[in-house]
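Everyone, study these two lines:
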Amino acid sequence: MGDYEPLGESGIKQLVNDAARRAGIGRTVHPHLLRHSWMTEMLRRGVNPLQLRVVAGASPEVIARHYEHLTEDDAYEAMILALTEPPRR
């Protein structure tokens, strides 16, 4: 096994684009899009926005501005999930 250098920004972008192409995604995918998609999914699953903000390092303004596309149905589903799942300890 040889020594490897860490991936740089262009290497990460290439990996993301290659994975998107293999997945059949026909548009350009940037690493930031993956972050946005992950944060959206976490909010849809009922993760507390304040906790997500801390984990993702996002400001309250970013959470409010970029994730306002979530619908009332998303909020309802998150609430049902939170009420029916056993508490995590």
About this structure: The mean pLDDT is 82. The two ends are 41 Å apart (CA to CA).
